[in-house]
Amino acid sequence: MSKNRLYPVLFLALGPVTLSIGEALRLDLPSAIERALERNFAVRIERIEARVALQELRAAEGAFDPELRSSYTYERQSSVFSTVDDEDASMHIGLGSTLPWGTEWEVGLEASDRTSPFDLQTGSALDSVTSFAGVTVTQPLLRNAGRVGSYTGVRVAREAVRSDWELFRSRVMDLVTDTVTAYHNLYFARENLRIARENRDLALKLLEDNRKRVETGAMAPLDLLQAESEAALREDNVIRARSFLDQARNVLKELVWDDPRSVLSVELEIEPPAEPGWFNPDPARDLAIALRERPELLASQAGLQIRRFEASRLERNALPRLDLVGSIGRLGVDRSLRDSLDRTLDDGENAYSIGAVFSLPFPNRTRSALRAQAYLRRNQAELGLQELELAIRLEIDDAATRLKADWSRIQAARTARELAGRSLAAEEKKLQAGTSSTFVVLRLQGDLAVAEIREINALTDYAISLSRYHRARGRILEEFDIRLQMDRPASLEK
């Protein structure tokens, strides 16, 4: 596989490959992994979740975007004491937002036009317009105060992005491991069928030779019956092996093929995988790598951080509300809107206000219950993280044990296959010389077939165990030179 292969965050949604009639899709292991990464539905679905989390982060950050606000109200009341109705119209326009530490600010202009039935001094209708232009600020001191109060949503969204990305990376690692497993299992199934056919052909050849010997009187008919029975049994093995091969091929198809209409008709063929070399597992070294790079652990850590943020926010929100409210600006009063605004913006009077808002619910059961729930969720996440770390430690130890055992099986199975081949060759010579029997030769043929299957099985199991060991230590992508690139908005680095 080529070095430094880069798979970006959004894999290409390639269209179905068109194959001509009778043409087979031939893959080697690197191309099978590449096709799985490009076409597998589970990975593409998981990737969408990671991109959704990015949009949720944008939405959380958008809560602090400035907002243009405007309003207009009109109210009219009739009076039995006057022919002039009491009218009140007000308008407001401003630009404001909430800051990360909870401060709410607004720069605005507002005006109120009030017409009263009587002016107490002149006895006529009174029409006055009051305008104000300035800055209004509300600063929470307890509930919603500080970054713990209002900025927690962004912090939670950032950790959710990291968590979803790590879960996506975990899914990719699983896919690579599953593809390696399916590929080697398909190769084993193909070799199993080849060995079964060769073993059957040996029985058929021996049956034909025995028939000639029976015809010439050099062999008893009983040996012919043994050869016929064994040939029938081995044909059954061929049928079973062919069915196993079809099933193994479908497992790999599911990983590398994404066109439902043609998945059953495509002919999938694979190249023999390279024989894996010895990898010396070091559980202590690889555990340190796993604790640093396992995506499930990183996702769990992000989840725990989310629970901590939420617990802090709900603890702050359980406090009473105490907000300081103040404004400063210029005030203008006149008989028309234009004159009132001119006064406000030109030589109006300085105006300011300051006050406080306080509230305390009795009893405070809702917020208290939410706070207690958040602490329980945090404790639950801490226990889950410890449980996952325990599972990772045991997984690496088990994977190392399995890897060493499978490597030893290869050596033993290879020796057994070589000895079985020599024994069969020697016994066949004895049979030709008339010093052995069909029963012994058939048994040794079966022993050789079993030894060959065990060797292929040991090689397959070792290759699968090796990929699973790399997966357990969190380095399966690096072993196949696969790099994933994450969308990282600038805010994610803060």
How would you write the strand order of the largest sheet? 3-4-5-6-8-9
CATH topology of the largest domain: Outer membrane efflux proteins (OEP)
CATH architecture of the largest domain: Up-down Bundle
- The CATH class of the largest domain turns out to be Mainly Alpha
Euclidean distance between termini CA atoms = 36 Å
Helix percentage range: 55-70%
Describe the secondary structure blueprint for this structure.
Layout: E1 5-7, E2 24-27, H1 29-39, H2 41-61, E3 67-77, E4 86-98, E5 104-116, E6 126-140, H3 146-150, H4 152-215, H5 221-256, E7 267-270, H6 283-293, H7 295-317, E8 321-334, H8 337-345, E9 349-359, H9 365-433, H10 438-472, H11 476-479, E10 482-484
Parallel strand pairs: 1-10, 2-7
Antiparallel strand pairs: 3-4, 4-5, 5-6, 6-8, 8-9
Helix pairs in contact: 1-4, 2-4, 4-5, 4-7, 4-10, 6-9, 7-9, 9-10
Your description of this structure?
This protein has 494 residues and is an alpha+beta fold. The chain has two domains: 303 residues, Outer membrane efflux proteins (OEP) (Up-down Bundle), CATH 1.20.1600.10; 134 residues, Outer membrane efflux proteins (OEP). Helix content is 58%, strand content 18%. It is built from eleven helices and ten strands. Helix 6 packs across helix 9.
Task: Note the main attributes of this structure.
494 residues, alpha+beta, Outer membrane efflux proteins (OEP), 6-stranded antiparallel β-sheet, two-stranded parallel ribbon, 18% strand
What's the quick description here?
This protein is of the alpha+beta class. It has eleven helices and ten strands.
